[in-house]
Amino acid sequence: MLDVQMLTKRFGDKTAVENVSFNIDRSMMIGVIGRSGAGKSTLLRALNCLSDVTSGSITFEGQEITGLKGAARRNWQSRCAMIFQQFNLVPRMDVVSNVLHGTLNRRSTLATMFNLYPDSDIHKAIEILDRLGIAEQAEKRAEALSGGQQQRVAIARALMQDPQIILADEPIASLDPMNAQIVMQALRRIHEEDGRMVIANLHTLDTARRYCDRVIGMRDGRVVFDGTPEQLTTGAARDIYGAGADFSEAATSTEIETLDRSQTYAAETYA
Ligand SMILES: Nc1ncnc2c1ncn2[C@@H]1O[C@H](COP(=O)(O)OP(=O)(O)OP(=O)(O)O)[C@@H](O)[C@H]1O
């Protein structure tokens, strides 16, 4: 499906991604982990053709992605929707209109200028919001929603494109543990129910372990780990994060685990 070979991206003297290779042969949920500056965002942006690569190749279902221009590039970008840490919604615009923005790639300039959306698209947008549990927020301005709700609006906007791949760049980094969990569960469901591939940059080890089928660990632009969550031992994590023997996994964990523990505790207490 997705094949990345010897991908390199330099910014002047700085090599952000260096000779990265991996092959994903079926749709799965993949977590990319590593320290700040390891090259995770640069890799995702290259996959989405948001920035040109220095060398190497990316192919999806046999099609070369690197170097795509114009309409071919836009077509690829609509097949692999991107979600960002800061949601990138239009704050003053209502939720449904934000979601409908996901259809921009396939609408005429005139329709876009006059905000003309076919009824079928509006129904689809509401269905997707409903699926993500936020249909009742449809008429509100995006800025009036919580961070977790805004990220679900961003996921809904991505789903409007009916993408084969969802690329999520630190999708939960700005969220509290409860909302982080809701957003990760939404991404997991989208993968399982729709068969879409999800590739998410994650800053926490426990999130990658919990939600992903495969984890790619990056350090200084290179892939230093590629395996299942079970293979991601403390020793492997230490390599990825370049930490010493005193490495503590807790340092790369959010409070999600704590939250789960307290939920289990509550469940046990009230059982
Ligand atoms: N546009 C740019 N110009 C110059 N250097 C850049 C640019 N984008 C990224 N870099 C550098 O490339 C390296 C990798 O950055 P990147 O943002 O991909 O890392 P990251 O793993 O996503 O980190 P973070 O989690 O902090 O976003 C960093 O050293 C960064 O400073």
Automatic annotation (TrEMBL):
What is the protein's name according to its record?
Answer: Phosphonate transport system ATP-binding protein
| An annotated Gene Ontology molecular function | ATP hydrolysis activity
SMART domains from the xrefs?
AAA
Q: Which UniProt keywords apply?
A: ATP-binding, Cell inner membrane, Cell membrane, Membrane, Nucleotide-binding, Translocase, Transport
Coiled-coil stretches, from where to where?
none
Could you tell me which residue ranges the ABC transporter domain spans? 2-245
Q: Does the keyword Transport apply?
A: yes
Q: Which domain of life is it from?
A: Bacteria
Q: Pfam families attached here?
A: ABC_tran
> What cellular component GO annotations does this protein have?
membrane
Q: Which CDD domains match?
A: ABC_PhnC_transporter
Give the matching InterPro entries. AAA+_ATPase, ABC_transporter-like_ATP-bd, ABC_transporter-like_CS, ABC_transpr_PhnC, MetN_ABC_transporter-like, P-loop_NTPase
